[in-house]
Amino acid sequence: MNAKTIRAIILQVLVVLAMSIAAFAEDKPAQKTEKADPPPQPQQVSNGKEYLGPTADSIRPYRSSGRDPFKRTVKPRAARAKQQQTRALGYPTLDMRRAEFRQKVDQARAREGAEPDPVSQYLVSELDITGVFRDERGPGAFVRAQPTGTMFFVRNGAKCYNGEVLRIASDTSDPGGAKVMFREVSYQEVNGKQTPQERTVTKAPGEKK
Questions:
Q1: Which has the closest alpha carbon to 162: 184, 146, 182?
Q2: Would you write out the chain's pLDDT as a tens digit for each of its 209 residues?
């Protein structure tokens, strides 16, 4: 048997084998059926019985807390600040004011400057008006310091210890029209803080305030 004949036989065997394999594959199902899930099993408890839910004894009735969950809670406002504590502050004694005045005089003399007005030692309440006049420099007034009895004359703008002369009115035709207007400054302590207070004081000759 020559080689050509052997090759022809082998080729026939391979063809028959291929046809057998194809026929065997056609006999199998095209797709596998999906495996269905097993049916749910009833829940078991420790004693082996089926669980049917909570018992009536274990269910508690609903009790309201008395608060509306949809109502907005408003916080109370902060308490009002404590009432302000006010205390009127006094002034230094006359001796202390006179010592302060002498110190200012010494300082002015050392600088060769103008000395302070002596009336600046006294409070507005310590000055009495004894008369009002007018000259070429304008209106003026005579004042008497109560503590010492010293006489002074003042003009508009004269400084006192706690104020100044705002205006001097001299009406010779009307004796009641003569008056002196002062600005008086006092101090109050409000919650520990010193606060100035101003007011206008009017005095007439022969009138004491």
A1: 184
A2: 666 677 777 777 777 777 777 666 665 554 555 555 665 565 555 555 666 666 766 667 666 666 666 677 766 665 555 566 778 788 999 999 999 999 999 999 999 999 999 999 999 999 999 999 988 999 999 999 998 999 999 999 999 999 999 999 976 566 567 899 999 999 888 877 888 889 999 999 887 66
CA distance 100 to 92: 10
Q: Which two tokens stand for residue 140?
A: 């003026």
Q: Give the CA distances from residue 12 to residues 3, 8, 15, 21, 129, in Å, rounded to whole numbers and listed in that order.
A: 15, 6, 5, 15, 156
Q: How far is residue 206's CA from residue 128's CA, in Å, rounded to a whole number?
A: 7
The whole-angstrom separation of Cα 117 and Cα 120 is 6
The domain that contains 93 carries what CATH number?
2.30.30.830
Residue 153 and residue 141 in contact, taking contact as beta carbons nearer than 8 Å: yes
Helical ranges in 28-149 per DSSP H = 94-110
Residue span of the structural domain in which 121 resides: 89-203
> What do you get for the CA distance between the two ends of the chain, in Å?
163
Q: How many domains does the chain have?
A: 1
**Position 128: which residue type?**
D
Task: Please name which of 89, 117, 88, 91 lies closest in space to residue 105, comparing C-alpha atoms.
Answer: 117
